[in-house]
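Contributing: when you submit paired examples, paste them exactly as shown. First protein:
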Amino acid sequence: MSRTPVIQWPEFQHETLLLVEDNDDDVFIMRAAWRKSGISNRLETVRDGEEAVQYLSGSGAWGERAKFPLPTVILLDLNLPKKSGLEVLQWVREQKGLKHISVQILTASTRAEDVQRAFELGVNDYLVKPSKIESLVEMLKAWQAFAQFKAFPGAPGGKV
């Protein structure tokens, strides 16, 4: 299996992405799949909805923006402690300075109510976590190729 992403847009490769995931095993699997898929973006991780809000608002342990830059993309689980993924999504969309960030739900939930509510709140995409790491790697490769053009619309092949 190749470690090279399908498409690389250099500016996107330098962007930080934020994973909001409370399950340590899922974080470990995601980081392994991240490496195997060849995605070179920095992946910051927070463990619950309140930490996500703190990271995004630059408060608490994440107060130093040079060290913890705003992400271009948030990969957000729905089932989180303290604040749910939907609550975090709603909060992000209410913040004037964060509306440009692409929010991608990455969850095991296939409930129609969750999907509908996420889109009502302004999620960019809703991805269901595959059960096998190989499938996750393939999903991440495809997602990365697509996500960079959404983040940088002027990229070759992106929306102008």
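Second protein:
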Amino acid sequence: PQFKLISNKSRIAESKIILARTQAKPLPEFSVGLRRYESTDDFGLVTGVSMPFGKKNSQQGTIQALSSSLLTHQAEANVLEKSLLKQAYRLNQEINHSAHVISTLIGESIPILKQALKEAKKAYQLGRYSYRELSAIQNELIATEEKLITAYFNLHSNNIEIERLTGGTL
């Protein structure tokens, strides 16, 4: 929406520049009329041509002001583009980080913790581990799964934000 607003302002400024340039050119005026003469009770056809001798640069100040506003709009568009690219890059890096965290948790951490929990359950049943040690491993697995859910949430949130910024998805 911000790009559309700046684009519309630029088009309006361009149109005003074109209008000012056409108004600066002296144009001849033609007139045609009908005249009644009272003394002779007669009618006559009257035509006229008016040729102005004005300068061509009478609108130069307006044209320069509009040109500078056009340059301002272009600079605003460039600043907005740089800002949006920076946001998109940051979000892309966050998505890459979340994807790396997800792959690490799924590929390494969670399988190891599940295996450790399985072994701890066996050791608990044999009496080598206390319930506190078994519970600590279960809590560690739950905390790791919460990290996984948070990483998925961050990934999807950042993807939605990129879609909002760019109008497309990765």
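If you have annotations for the second protein, write them as plain sentences, like these:
The chain has a mean pLDDT of 88.
The chain is about 75% helix and 10% strand.
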